[in-house]
Amino acid sequence: MKKFIFAFILFALLLTVNAAPFQLNKRATTFGSCPYPYVDSLNVTMVTDPPKSEKSDSFNVSGNLTQVDITKNQTLLEIFYCNPDGSQIGDYYSQVFNESIKAGTQFTVTASDVPTPKLPDSYLILVIIGDKDNDPSNPYHVVLYACVVADVV
Ligand SMILES: *[C@@H]1O[C@H](CO)[C@@H](O)[C@H](O)[C@H]1NC(C)=O
Ligand SMILES: *[C@@H]1O[C@H](CO)[C@@H](O)[C@H](O)[C@H]1NC(C)=O
Ligand SMILES: *[C@@H]1O[C@H](CO)[C@@H](O)[C@H](O)[C@H]1NC(C)=O
Ligand SMILES: *[C@@H]1O[C@H](CO)[C@@H](O)[C@H](O)[C@H]1NC(C)=O
Ligand SMILES: *[C@@H]1O[C@H](CO)[C@@H](O)[C@H](O)[C@H]1NC(C)=O
């Protein structure tokens, strides 16, 4: 009987230890609209959520551009990681659309191999759709058509 109790306590302890880090990390990333007028919103889900520092992640991005068409081989999906002050962390991810999509049409696009930079404790994730802007002072490199941001703390 004593042996049985010991095994049970050990088992319970193992369960607690395994569950603890999982609960600490249990925070689904929530994306909200960017503070710009005339820019559409998007729904974003990630396979690894929250993302793991210096691994890669997969993003599903869906939405409906209300003003403009998405142009095949031209319109870009971009993903930026930033510090809470807005400064960029590492390189940004960019992927060109492989199909044209008319304004007012629901679409989903997958970015399946997005490298995650070395992440600080708090950071922002920006997901953007737009057409290339050659103005070097534009930090997003595109004219924004859609944009959402998540504040991960
Ligand atoms: C992303 O979309 C694909 C295809 O629609 C689906 O199989 C996958 O489960 C989605 N992933 C997430 C994280 O929503
Ligand atoms: C995001 O998903 C919700 C729930 O499915 C939907 O009501 C909303 O219209 C979607 N937003 C966009 C921009 O697609
Ligand atoms: C799109 O880009 C691919 C690869 O760069 C090229 O093969 C294809 O011809 C392009 N299509 C159009 C419509 O420009
Ligand atoms: C675009 O790429 C996705 C995968 O990234 C693929 O599922 C889809 O069939 C492609 N569409 C076209 C028109 O090539
Ligand atoms: C996309 O947005 C337009 C304008 O708001 C709306 O009329 C249309 O019904 C939407 N389409 C879908 C598929 O949500």
From TrEMBL:
Signal peptide feature range: 1-19
Name of the protein described by the UniProt record: MD-2-related lipid-recognition domain-containing protein
Domain of life (superkingdom): Eukaryota
Keywords: Signal
